[in-house]
Structure formats: C-alpha cells, structure tokens
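Suppose a classmate hands you a notebook page containing two proteins, each written out with its sequence and a corresponding row of structure tokens. How would you begin to make sense of it? This section walks through that situation. The first entry is reproduced here exactly as it would appear on such a page.
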Amino acid sequence: MLHMLHLLAVLSASDMPLSGLRAFPSAGATVAAHAAAARALDRVCYPKDGMWSAAQFEEEIRSPRTAALGAWTVGDSGDEALVGMCFTSTVLDEASLTSLAVHPRLRRRGIGEALVCESMARAQAAGAAHFLLEVRSGNEAALRLYGRCGLTVAGRRPRYYRDGEDALLLSASLPAEVGGASPMRRAGGCLSEGARGVERALSNK
C-alpha cells in the first residue's frame, strides 16, 4: 500500500522501526489490550484526560460499524508501541472519522496523513461513497492535513465546541472501485483540490 510505504520511509528516517499500518483486532483476547493502548495514546494526545475511556475504545473496536487503524513502532526488545490511530464509523454509505491521534513526538512527519488516506481507501473498498469529519475551525494544521487527503469544507457548525469555537464540516466523495483497484490508492489517495479548498477556507477565516 502506498501510504504504508510512505509511513515506513518516514519512520525509517527517524530511526524508529515500524511494524506497519494495520487494523485493530475486533474480537479475541487482545481487544482489551489494544483498547488500553489506544486509551494511553489518547491521553498523551488530548490532555487533560483524553477524549474516550478505555471502555469506549473497546466498544468502538468491537463494533461492526467501526474501522480502527493503528500505526505501530517496534522497540529494541521487540515490543510494539502504538504511535498513531484513526477510527472511522460507517453507516450506510457514509464513513465518518471519529478519532485521529498521532504521538506528539512524531507529528509533522506524514503519519496522520497516511492514517487518514489509508482509512479513506479502506472505507471506499468497503463500499462507502462519502467520507466525513468535523474539526475545529482554528486547527490549521489539521485542516491542511485533511486537505492533502482530498477533504473539502462542506459547512460550519457555529459555537459547536464547549469553548464556543466553530466546527468546520469536511467531506470527500469516494469514487467507486474500477476493475478491483481503488482509484484513491492508484492516485495516492491525497487530492490536490481538497488542499486548495482548505487553503481557501483558512484565508477566509
């Protein structure tokens, strides 16, 4: 997969071996351990106490509507560590991003972009026609990341967050697969038009 190879190159340059991008197991004895790893990363990325509890992560991982994708590094002892994750929930033909996190020490290296673009490609392969998310209007780094993944601004929710900040609604259409090959994967998944649309939104704030 193009984005997995990109992520491997990013982490290789940082002397951090990567075991790959892969889905969280949705059943079995390791689900609780994966939920705990997600909770730990969530708390690091979203102080003061993270966005979701371990129980919420476990519920999401087990849900048939949820696709949970993780980026993992391998330590000297051979143990894996979760350094990035992207959760999406699909209802009918719409896939919505519900959680994205990358360890603070590894941001601005393409990991978030790889996770989002790969999640979009997997949602498309599973039959989703639309990919949606909400983001703070002032989160310029996230807006640029999502723009590079082909998402464009589709609307605004005034004073959506508790502190009164607006939320921007971003969306992308996921073209149907042709001949068994995902158009998003053939094109690298990241569409320049999305980036241009987000840049326009940032300049008009």
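The notebook's second entry, a different protein, reads as follows.
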Amino acid sequence: MCRVPHRQRRTTAVAMLAADVLAGGGSPHSLDGQPKGLPLLGDSSSAAQKRGREGRQPSPPIAVSPDSSTAPRRRWRPFGWCWRPVRQYVNWRSGAVTTVTTVTTVTTVTTVATVATVAAVIAGASACAPSAVADVAPPPPATPPVARVLVIGDAGGRVPNPVLDALQASLREHPTAVAVFAGDNIYPSGMPAQGTPARDVAEARLRAQLAAVLATPATGIVVPGNHDWGNAAEHGAHVLEREASFIAAEGGGRVRMHTTAGCPGPDVVDVGASVRLVLLDTEWWLRLASGLAVPTHVGTTPCLSRHDAVLDSLGRAIARGGSRRVLVVAHHPLVSVGAHGGRLGWRQHLFPLVALHPALWIPLPIVGSAYPLAARARTTVQDLNSPAYRRLRLAMDSVVATHGALAWVAGHEHNLQVARTPRGVLHVVSGSGRRARAAFVAPTRATLHAVQANGYVQFDVWADGLVRLSVITVDAHGRPSTRLLLEQR
C-alpha cells in the first residue's frame, strides 16, 4: 500500500478539487468566485439553468460492475497504487466516496500543458538573449586579410569527417592560413602504443586531421587536450610523446605539436606581423592541481613545474606581442554555457548514452541526471565548477585581461560559443569538430553567440588592425555555412 503523508493528502485534495472544477462537478465555488449552482455571467443556456437548479444536489457515485461486459479493462500503470488519493476523494457535501477517473485525465493534461508552457517560456527567454550578430553583415574590405587563423577542437572522432572536409576548403581560400587543432585530437585515450589493437584507429583519426592541412598551402598547429593525455592508468607524458612523434613523422614539417609533450607551455607562434598565437596545455594544470604526475622535463627540455611560473610566462608572452593581436589557444574554456558548465537539456537528462553513441536512445531518467548534478557539485575535474578548474579560470582570465589579449579560444565543449567578459576579452569555444551530434548549449545574457552545431571559428586580420570573427557551421554532408559574428579594430 502506498502511504501518503498528511500534508501530501491535503495538497492532493486541492489538486482534485481544481480538477473537479474543470470536470464540472463537486466544487463549492466556480472559477469566477460565484457559488456553485448559479449560472456563470453571460451563460444563458439551458445547461447553465439546469446547473443552477441541480448544483446543490450531491453527485451520485459512478458504479461499474466488474462482471459486466462493458466494464473497462484494467490497464497496468507504473506506480498506479500511488494514484489512489487522486482517483478517490471524499465529497465534501455528502461524505460519499466517489470514483472519478476524469480527475486523473484532467490532472495529466494540465501537467502536460504546464510543462509545455514552461518550455515555451524558457525557449522564449533564450531567444530573447541579446546577440552581437548583425542581420546584414557589412561587406569585407577590398583587400584580403593579411592573416587567417582557423580553430577547430575535438576533431579526433570517427572518420571520414565532413567537418574536416569543410575545413580543408576554408584553408584553400587563403595562402597563408593557419589551422589550430584545440585538443582532443584522438578519442578516446590518445595515441596507443605500437602493436596494440587500437593503434590503427588512432592513427587514422589523427592522419585525417593532418591531411586536411597538408592538402592545402596552409600550416597546422596541434594543441593537446585531456583525451590526448590518455587514461589515468598510464603516464600521460608517454601518450603525448607518441602523438608528437606521429605528427613529426606525418606532418611534413608543416604541422607541429605545441606545447612540448607533457609541458604546460606557453609556446609562442607569430603569424606574420599581425597575429600572435600563445599556446597552452591546460590539462597539465588540472593534473598538477589534482595531484597527478606531470613531467619535470622532456628529454633535455625542462618543463615549468609551478602554476605561478606558467602565469608569469603567459603574461610576458602576451605583453611582448607588440601591436599583434594575441589569441591564447588552449583546450579548456574559461567561460562556457554547455555541459561542462553544468548546463544540460532534457535530452541529456533522459538519454545520457547518446553522448557515447548517437544510436543509444535509451531512456535513463535517474542515471542521466547524475552527471549534471555531479558537474554542479564540483566532483569532476573536467567541469568548470570543480575546485582545480575554478582556480584555472580565475588565474588565466586575470592574466589575459590584464595584458590585453584579444581572445581565449578553446575546445572541450562540443558546440560553438562566443562570449565577452566585462573586461573586454572574447571567450570562444570551438569544440565541435567531430563527426557526431553537437552538444546542448544554453545561452545566457552574457553570451554573444551559441549554437548546437558542428563546425569551427575563423579569425581574419587586416593590416590596419581590423579583426573579423566568423562562425562556420557544417552540416552532415560537409556543406559549410559562414556567419560573421563581429568585427572590431
């Protein structure tokens, strides 16, 4: 038997009386406050007059014989025993117990309508979020940009990959373009050792990214992400060294890995006289803060071993950029309105396995809610609210804002986002380079642009200092769609 607390029974009774009003029975007052039994204002129908004459008479119970051939079939309902307080209630006028099946129906319809209304309000609020995207993009300058940088993250999934096909077409449009792969270049656990079963798959996934660059005149830069460090059972620096060796052998000198495998950086790459790229391995920071092993040197190359040393070096790299526009590229974003920021939609709560495989539409309503609750409870180091990640965000954001970097560009979240902090730094997320369904995103008022789509971002810089940021989304057939998001000098 389902025991219902007294307070719940009282709340249930209120809901049942409201449902009875909608069904036309047993409530002492109508919706307009008039006593039950009187016709509503403006209601001159015979039915209304009949309600006035018969309103004070108790409604007879509805009796249905279980042996009758017309008796409804008993249907199984999960937790149906807990609906007994709803299906049966005490008539306040006569004390007779009346079985009203319509109460359950009306309550269900009302609940569905309420959920739909709330969803519409939320959707409307999201749609009303301000955006910096103009309805009509201004025409580009007559001269081509002197530098073009395209950033794509989390591209190490299944091949063939239509997003990489679109990236290759974008790189062909500019002779000196630079493609930056912002981490998670090999799913699920970086580059395996030679002779292991997963080695061939990992090589194919990384080779596809290198081929997108090598088929054009462009150059490429590979930044490590958390998946490139491998799993916790293996020393991450060894996994990174295998990936760096493969890139050195297959990259033809035009695609290089930064930073040095296992070191945090920062590494500096200047793109002409207009753009400076400052490259970081933020997974090193999170591992050191979590007590995991990180290398002190790689070969004869020493690594920075303290967080404050990395911050000082980052500040100097930005400040010494001169008149160049500085883009800091790392795997982990500092601002996000995606899953790692604790913002998940109903699909992620109800169908959590879709994140592992697009065909796993298996409803797990309780299990699916465990991850967003864990993300908000700061239990996973890869989420923005964890203590280690929070220290990373605060420290890095202070340095890039103080020294005047243009943007912090990252991956990690499998969608496309752009935001601007009050101190003027752009925070760009470009982590939907995989051949997979893009992840949910919930923009806020501080978000300039956010879209659940696969693609990458593109920075164009002119000699006079003009910068144009475009978001390029790619459909399942590899067709790109470019949207100018903002331009500034």
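A careful reader of the second entry would note: The longest strand covers residues 480-488.
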